Amino acid sequence: QVQLVESGGGLVQAGGALRLSCAASGRTSGAMAWFRQAPGKEREFVAAITRITNTYYTDSVKGRFTISRDNAKNTVDLQMNSLKPEDTAVYYCAAARIIFPLTWQFMQVRLYDYWGQGTQVTVSS
Q1: N or C: which terminus of the chain carries fewer CB neighbours within 10 A?
Q2: CB–CB of 22/11 below 8 Å?
Q3: % helix / strand / coil in the chain, to the nearest 5?
Q4: 95-124: per-residue pLDDT in tens?
Q5: Count of beta carbons in the 10 Å neighbourhood of residue 62
Q6: How far is CA 63 from CA 69, 81, 106, 125, in A?
Q7: In what order do the strands lie in the sheet with 75-80?
Q8: pLDDT tens-place string over residues 53-101
Q9: String of b and e for 49-59 (b: at least 16 CB within 10 Å)?
Q10: DSSP label at residue 37
Q11: Strand 65-70 vs strand 10-13: parallel, antiparallel, or unpaired?
Q12: Distance between CA 76 and CA 94 in Å, rounded?
């Protein structure tokens, strides 16, 4: 069993930065990712990283967000720079038990097995 706990959310002004962290209680050998969900909207993909540190990002955060992982510590971080009001959402850490062979699979909510409780990120204009 794997348990994920996110931290680092908060309130920032547009243009500011936050660093989110996700700690896993058990080893996750597959992909790890960050998703976000705004009120009344579906959960959407933000970024993912494999165990060998290949990374994937949704277009809206490319160049602003950076995902990283520490396999020894079993953690994954999301550095968020140049934040915009539209980044406001609850951010969730996710982990998969399997290794995804295709790029599109990293973006699918249904393919992840474990989820954290979420951490709120609010960006004011």
Answers
A1: N
A2: no
A3: 10, 45, 45
A4: 999 999 999 999 999 999 999 999 999 999
A5: 10
A6: 18, 9, 19, 20
A7: 4-7, 18-24, 75-80, 65-70
A8: 999 999 999 999 999 998 888 899 999 999 999 999 999 999 999 999 9
A9: bbeeeeebbbe
A10: E
A11: unpaired
A12: 10
Dist. CA 16–CA 80, nearest whole Å: 8
Compute the distance between CA of residue 125 and CA of residue 111 in angstroms, rounded to an integer.
Answer: 34
41 exposure class (CB count in 10 Å sphere: 0-12, 13-18, 19+):
exposed
Residues 6+ apart with CB under 8 A from 89: 36, 37, 38, 121
Pairing of strands 10-13, 119-124: parallel
